[in-house]
Amino acid sequence: MSEHELPYGPAAQRLFEALLDREEFSESDYRIVATALERQLLFHYRSVGVEEISDISAATVLALLEEIDKHRRPDGSMSRRDFIESPAAWMSSVAARKAVDRLRKAKREGVFPDTDIPDDSLAELFESRATRATVHDCVRIAGSNGDFVVVAVVRAFLELAPLTRSAPSSRAIARVTGYSHPTVSAALRRFGNCLQAHL
User: Fold this and answer.
1) Among 37, 80, 85, 175, which is 20 to 30 Å from 21 by CA?
2) What string of pLDDT tens digits covers the 199 residues of the chain?
3) The pTM is what?
4) Do 28 and 95 reside in the same domain of the chain?
5) How far is CA 185 from the centre of its chain?
6) Cα–Cα distance between 173 and 166 in angstroms, integer?
7) Is residue 172 located within the same domain as residue 97?
8) Would residue 114 count as lying in a domain?
9) Same domain assignment for residues 24 and 68
């Protein structure tokens, strides 16, 4: 995908050029880039978690600055200015790699934040005999098995349920996660099977 096909391409280019020239960059351009990165990550890597995604977005812009400094001479001038052809595409790629790295770390450590729920009432929306402990355990199992679709779907379920005061539909979860309705339905079945096995 070329820079101009990315919706934040022009803002990313302006941000890149300001950092190259050590000029003050536009706060508006920064927010456009950061928000676009966060939306991409939420769509593709929602199971990373909202707070983590915000951190990755900020870290990606910092990575751009660090990459620029690698090409800066001691006198502050640039050895070259074309080492990144498309700042938007470059940052999109870096952000994706950072998200994947965090998912792999979570898988290794068995840590999946933001999956705890306050009591059993939400757990019972999945299955009448489910508890918060079994929900948490099955999310950990899904993550350890690399099934991050289940992790994302369950998180969306838990976010939507307090708003609707009932089990959200698979179509509602699909709208939030960006996954297709059949993909969400299949993920909920896999999660339900795990709950049944651990009751």
Assistant:
1) 37
2) 444 346 789 999 999 999 998 888 889 999 999 999 998 888 777 777 777 888 899 999 999 999 999 988 888 888 888 889 899 999 999 999 998 888 777 666 555 545 556 678 888 999 899 998 899 889 888 887 878 888 888 888 888 888 777 899 998 888 877 778 899 999 999 999 999 998 8
3) 0.58
4) yes
5) 21
6) 13
7) no
8) no
9) yes
